[in-house]
Specification:
Blueprint: H1 2-12, H2 20-29, H3 36-50, H4 54-70, H5 80-88, H6 91-98, H7 101-110, H8 112-115
Helix pairs in contact: 3-4
Length: about 120
């Protein structure tokens, strides 16, 4: 119910491609809303500074595309396993690239802090 109301707020402030975070910031602080695509474009240089290996950037790019296309739910830890399987087929295949499941999780969770820095 709450998520439905928040989703309908996006339409009211003409921010359908924005996260709820941006909509609430607009309502509370009168800040400009940004689309998910704009948020990614702004954060990408900083993300690439912190995640410099090709396989890290390829995985992050895959996740960010899903985020832009589908929304913020793609960033939840609960989606991590399905994201890995979509990109690498199995967690074992991904672990070959990253070294361990722990490193995969650190990348999946870690880059997100740069996405929401203002």
């Amino acid at each position: 119910m709450i998520s439905e109301k928040l989703e309908s707020m996006k339409g009211l402030v003409d921010a359908r491609d924005s996260d709820v975070y941006d909509v609430l910031a607009y309502v509370a602080y009168a800040t400009e809303t940004r689309s998910r695509q704009q948020r990614v474009e702004q954060a990408k240089p900083v993300i690439n500074q912190h995640y410099t290996e090709y396989h890290q950037q390829a995985f992050i790019d895959f996740i960010l595309k899903r985020y832009v296309d589908e929304g913020v739910t793609e960033l939840s830890v609960g989606k991590m396993k399905s994201m890995i399987e979509l990109k690498y087929n199995t967690i074992s295949d991904a672990a070959v690239e990253f070294g361990s499941a722990k490193v995969i999780r650190e990348v999946f969770v870690g880059f997100q802090q740069y996405l929401y820095r203002d």
